[in-house]
Give the backbone structure.
Amino acid sequence: MAQLSRLVLRNVNRNGSLFQPLKTCLNKTPLASVCTIQLFHSSTVQSNTSKVPKSSIWTTSVRFGELQTKNDIGFRCSANASDDGEFLHVTWEDGKVTRYPYVWLRDNCRCEQCYDSGMNQKLLTYKTFNANAKLNYVNKNGCNEITLHGDDDHVTVLDFTWLREKAPEMLKGTYDVEFPKVYMGSDAHSIVPVFQYDEVVDNPLKMYEWMKSIKIFGMGRMKGVPKKSNELMTFARNIAHTRQTFFGDITIIKAKSDAFFIGYTPVELSLHTDYTFGKTVPGIVLLHSIQRPEVGGESWFADGFKAARDLRNLDEKAFELLSKGVLEFQMHGENERGNVHLKNQRPTISLNESGDVEMVSYCDYARTETIKNISTDEVPAFYRALKKFASLVYSPENLMVLNLEEGEILASDNFRMLHGRAGFTLGKNGGRHVEHIFFDMEDFDSRMRCIANEHRDKIMEL
């Protein structure tokens, strides 16, 4: 199991059997172990590992994350103040040294005067904080603890475990509910774990595994859901408060003659991400299939992150245009809740500060004529870039076609996954009945942290 959880799969060929070894492995392996597996399509994918800048305020080659008990970590470690008192130097058991700015350690002191552990909040504020504080000397207390004595007579007690875990956060905070992603092709959905509703709704550990599958694969599947309206809301309340929109707390999608938007019609609904026209985009979409049409209506999904990475490697200029050019999206009309006119602007591919893709925004039916941050001369190339991205998400290699069963919930990462459906025929049963709910990503992540805090030992054993 330990070997599996360190496994990295790279350069996998795109063919019908490419996922079989991983699928077999996953069927026998708890999802907790999958969080360290990275599956990338084709040799065009590059590693996403962050690099320490040359001008780093800390330097180390320690392999953070090695399995060691708390009392073992500091056994052969030592610590001392730098000559100028600006840094704490920690020498690890392999002889490597990490430098910690003392002012950062002072700011993060967890003594009763500086921190309220009951509220998990700092009491030390910049109003009284001494930014010129220096470290006078260090005492080692037993095996794992050290005491820092500052020139302001403040005493800070730390342990080597905390120092080892927190070192990377000085430059870049760790996103604790983010996991390595499995990038999805057309046949990749076959490896996504399928959960049973009764197990997940009553078991926080199963809930955590299901939520983790959404983080890893971009989607989470669950079967055996009661086929009745508003059951999705009953389930959603076990996670967090839902994101209310102009559709209401829950969106009931059925074809009707006075359709407010294209999703309420039986015609084809092209691939898109939801709520592109909003200032704040909900991160998670839950779809509950209650009734399937007699003919058509298959659900479509495509991994926008994979398509963006493929585009970057196939045509870097096209990728740059889609990450630079800003499109406008709107929702304008009237439903039973009244008039609405939402409008927002964002690029098709949003990048974080490291240049990695963090969000895909794609919705043809909500796109207006506005294009910003693109010169007139660049407009033809920009349209060709959009077409190239669309060709990738609709390609046979990337488009997932799923016949969602009646009584199935499918959750998707709305920052990453595009979804749509084929057109369908209205039959004697009235057609298609799907209900969906939004969560803000922060609330979804909060629920994961709460489960992890309450069941940490059991989650580590999964």
Notes: Residues 85 and 225 are 61 Å apart (CA to CA).
